[in-house]
Backbone:
């Protein structure tokens, strides 16, 4: 540190100051607005309160649309330390929580709470802390935070963060410099509310216990200086000083330099060199918050410029539309070339996107310049390298170099010239003879660098995520492979070891089958004595065949009727078929009850083997018939849904067969194949019978012949049906062609035939769909 | 004399050879540091628009002499940086690999999501959360806007939404916003 504390205090007492490099002396024009007392505005109808009005993170809304709020009620909260809440500036109803254009140069919308004022201005219950010296500091700091105080000087830094600085503070500087032209808000505040500012200073002093307090005021505000001197003279620790007027002496780093000769390190904070700075407005707000319990809901705003009739300072509620303030000051648009209102001063402010944006915590001035007042239309010329900007720069930067690099988007080089130390005071642009908007280039370059940094961070994060994912997938793959290997090994082991076991299992099965056959035989022998029951099994078979035929007929009749109309009714069909089937079943039962009405089939009590085979065959036939029916059904009808349940019983029948006697099944298959061959050879005729040609045991020949006959009957029935149908619907080609595969499927019984049948069914389904689609298409066309 | 000089040279050669051989093993550089440098420049969207399965494979390809203008998400600035690093001339972006569009993020219309997890499997940076038959959603901050989740979605419920600029991401571009800024000069 170049100067120690005593030296500095001594110099301050002698009213001797340091200075900062550069700086400019623009025309102050403060007399425009500092002549009248701070006025109070009528409450506007609607207030728009942006959720984020400070540096840091925004809080979350505590209110909902339609809620009634009282003046001073907290609207947001956040657990984040770098956040302060916002409050309702008056009592009313929340009418919207939405994105609105706010006081930001971009004109981009931000989340705002919109309150419709009820005009009563009813305060929420306040909780002032009267004896703050007796309270723990943390209570005071949290009270300051709860009051939503962010630095009112312009940056909006949360005040409670500053108040909790742990570093030892030698100098507490109260900034009443207000160096920017036109602005007189702090000036009027010091003149009129010096005592409350002093109270605020006392609170801050209690919180951060500095060795000395310096209230700094520029020498162009003698009234304010006198007022502050008056209220501070009782305390020797507070020194009120007048500093020479030079822009930007009010900048934090510049003022520290002027008063203490110390420079804030470029990456550091004022606290690093034992200095803390508060704006006079902030001190006023702190006193309000602690002593009156009032949150920060209003501030002094200067309305000035030659385009307003009555330039003045007003107490504006946070969230008041700018329009409301301008009306108060009698803003005259015709005095301007085009409507232009600047928020902030002429050096650092920005043009507002519209006059509907609200006043926020950092709004200190509204400037409406008349036509010739400010040079708004800049004619940017080429840089002539006069270096006037470098002379004016209060931070000793090289604005020219930064300008070149920023313009050429050589951002890294601009950064090398300490772009981020630029305080954007506008002194360089003010002196530039080529009227280059230098600060604009710096702001742009800064924003781009920040975004690039963010992108880099994001890219790094993405990379990490990508690599983590890759590692995870690799691990999963390995785990899977390991699992597969393990499973394969287990399988191998299993296949090697129980090969013998399987064999024995097969033997067991054979033994079981034999045992079962024997048991059946025994049973059969028992029952053979009783002729009634003895008769029942072949009769049952016959009955089943009859039922199947009946069902087939029922289906046919069910189908023929709708076939004529061209459109079939699914449910009706089914119902008819069911009825027919029920009738057939009843008939079959009757036939079983009266064995006299026997079919010309084998009625003699046969062995268990024969019986079961016969039953199977018949079941198969029935299944085939059912399947054929289903197919026909599917073909004729537009829906293919009914087919599935019908075809299902085939599978169980097959299973049953294979489970019971594989050997028999094979024989049956051979028989069926032979039949199929025969039938293929002589399709139309079913007369030829060559039971003897079947390579089966003589005991089974009889059976196979019988089965064949039955199958043929079924086939004949099916064929007849098909023919009938073909005759009935000669137009319907699809149906006709469908019947053929159906009938062939009916004839055959082997797995091969079933496969064929399945294919046929698929074809039929496809056709049915086509027909349906066509029908729909036609229908839609008709509708059109 | 001749023998001694030969011997001396031979011994020297042997000594240097051993030293070099040792150094080659002791100070061996694992991997290609150039690949890391290139990879650091690439935007890590892992979108595969360059034709390689991710940013690192493309970085390896660049290190092996592939063109530097195949990365649409990186845009001009990435090409410029790569050109500087590789000592080659900066070329305009190869249009065959896509255009340098505004940054986007995926957005799942959650009502329509059927919970098939296909987008989760497609996301290279695990930026989609969800489970089978549960609604999925995109983690905004982690999404690189690579587009890879859009294709697998069977119900087309994923949109690529252009990131709207906020006051924080605004770049002082007055072409898009109504008014210019100052500093203005006070005419005295």
Residues:
């Amino acid at each position: 540190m170049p100067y120690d504390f005593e030296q500095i205090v001594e110099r301050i007492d002698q009213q001797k100051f340091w200075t900062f490099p550069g700086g400019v002396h623009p025309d102050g024009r403060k007399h425009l607005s500092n002549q009248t007392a701070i006025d109070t505005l009528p409450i506007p109808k609607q207030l728009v309160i942006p959720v984020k009005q400070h540096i840091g993170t925004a809080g979350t809304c505590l209110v909902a649309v339609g809620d009634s709020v009282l003046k001073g009620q907290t609207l947001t909260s956040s657990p984040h330390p770098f956040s302060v809440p916002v409050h309702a500036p008056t009592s009313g109803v929340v009418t919207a929580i939405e994105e609105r254009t706010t006081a930001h140069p971009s004109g981009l919308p931000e989340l705002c709470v919109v309150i419709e004022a009820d005009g009563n201005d009813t305060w929420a219950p306040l909780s002032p802390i009267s004896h703050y010296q007796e309270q723990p500091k943390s209570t005071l700091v949290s009270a300051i935070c709860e009051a939503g105080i962010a630095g009112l000087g312009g940056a909006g830094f949360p005040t409670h963060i500053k108040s909790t600085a742990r570093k030892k503070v030698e100098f507490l500087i109260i900034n009443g410099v207000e160096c920017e032209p036109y602005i007189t808000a702090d000036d009027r505040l010091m003149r009129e509310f010096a005592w409350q500012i002093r109270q605020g200073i006392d609170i801050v002093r209690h919180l951060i216990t500095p060795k000395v307090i310096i209230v700094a005021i520029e020498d162009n505000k003698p009234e304010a200086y006198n007022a502050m001197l008056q209220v501070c003279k009782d305390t020797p620790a507070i020194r009120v000083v007048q500093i020479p007027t030079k822009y930007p002496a009010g900048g934090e780093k510049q003022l520290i330099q002027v008063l203490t000769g110390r420079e804030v390190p470029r990456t550091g904070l004022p606290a690093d060199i034992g200095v803390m700075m508060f704006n006079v407005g902030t001190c006023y707000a702190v006193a309000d918050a602690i002593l009156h319990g009032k949150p920060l809901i209003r501030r002094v705003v200067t309305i000035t410029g030659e385009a307003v009739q009555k330039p003045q300072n007003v107490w504006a509620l946070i969230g008041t539309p700018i329009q409301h303030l301008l009306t108060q000051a009698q803003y005259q648009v015709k005095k301007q070339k085009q409507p232009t209102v600047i928020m902030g001063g002429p050096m650092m402010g920005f043009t507002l996107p519209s006059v509907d944006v609200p006043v926020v915590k950092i709004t200190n001035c509204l400037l409406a310049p008349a036509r010739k007042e400010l040079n708004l239309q800049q004619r940017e010329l080429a840089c002539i390298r006069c270096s006037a900007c470098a002379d004016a720069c209060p931070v000793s930067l090289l604005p020219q170099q930064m300008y070149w690099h920023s313009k050429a988007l050589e951002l890294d080089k601009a950064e090398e010239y300490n772009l981020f130390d630029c305080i954007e005071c506008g002194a360089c642009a003010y002196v530039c003879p080529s009227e280059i908007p230098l600060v604009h280039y710096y702001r742009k370059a800064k924003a781009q660098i920040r975004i690039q940094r963010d992108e880099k961070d994001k890219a790094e994060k993405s990379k990490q995520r990508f690599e983590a994912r890759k590692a995870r997938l690799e691990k999963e793959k390995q785990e899977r492979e390991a699992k597969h290997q393990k499973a394969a090994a287990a399988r191998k082991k299993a296949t090697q070891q129980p090969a013998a076991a399987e064999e024995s299992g097969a033997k067991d099965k054979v033994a079981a089958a034999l045992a079962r056959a024997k048991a059946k035989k025994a049973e059969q022998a028992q029952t053979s004595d009783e002729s009634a029951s003895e008769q029942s099994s072949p009769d049952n078979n016959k009955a089943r065949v009859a039922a199947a035929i009946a069902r087939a007929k029922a289906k046919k009749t069910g189908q023929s009727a709708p076939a004529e109309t061209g459109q079939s009714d699914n449910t009706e069909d089914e119902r008819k078929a069911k009825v027919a089937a029920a009738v057939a079943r009843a008939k079959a039962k009757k036939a079983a009850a009266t064995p006299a009405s026997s079919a010309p089939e084998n009625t003699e009590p046969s062995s268990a083997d024969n019986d079961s085979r016969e039953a199977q065959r018949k079941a198969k036939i029935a299944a085939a018939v059912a399947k054929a029916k289903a197919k026909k059904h599917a073909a004729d009808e537009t829906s293919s849904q009914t087919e599935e349940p019908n075809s299902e019983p085939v599978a169980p029948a097959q299973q049953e067969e294979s489970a019971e006697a594989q050997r028999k099944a094979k024989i049956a298959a051979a028989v069926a194949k032979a039949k199929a061959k025969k039938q293929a050879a002589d399709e139309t005729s079913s007369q030829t019978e060559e039971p003897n040609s079947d390579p089966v045991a003589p005991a089974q020949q009889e059976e196979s012949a019988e089965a064949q006959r039955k199958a043929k009957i079924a086939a004949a029935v099916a064929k007849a049906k098909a023919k009938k149908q073909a005759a009935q619907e000669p137009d319907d080609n699809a149906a006709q062609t469908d019947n053929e595969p159906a009938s062939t499927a009916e004839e055959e019984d082997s797995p091969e035939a079933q496969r064929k049948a399945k294919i046929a069914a698929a074809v039929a389904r496809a056709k049915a769909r086509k027909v349906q689609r066509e029908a729909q298409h036609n229908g839609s066309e008709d509708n059109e | 004399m001749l023998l001694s000089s030969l011997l001396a040279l031979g011994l020297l050669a042997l000594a240097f050879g051993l030293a070099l051989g040792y150094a080659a093993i002791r100070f061996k550089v694992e991997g290609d540091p150039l690949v890391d440098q290139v990879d650091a420049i690439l935007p890590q969207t892992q979108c595969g628009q360059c034709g390689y399965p991710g940013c690192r494979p493309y970085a390896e390809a660049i290190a092996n002499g592939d063109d530097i203008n195949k990365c649409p998400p990186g845009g001009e600035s990435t090409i410029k940086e790569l050109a500087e690093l590789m000592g080659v001339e900066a070329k305009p972006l190869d249009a065959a690999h896509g255009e340098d569009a505004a940054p986007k993020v995926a957005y799942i219309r959650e009502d329509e999501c059927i919970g098939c997890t296909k987008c989760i499997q497609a996301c290279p940076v695990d930026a989609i959360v969800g489970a089978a038959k549960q609604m999925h959603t995109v983690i905004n901050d982690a999404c690189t806007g690579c587009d890879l989740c859009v294709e697998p979605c069977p119900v087309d419920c994923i949109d690529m939404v252009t990131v709207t600029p906020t006051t924080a991401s605004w770049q002082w571009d007055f072409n898009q916003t109504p008014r210019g800024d100052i500093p203005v000069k006070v005419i005295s």
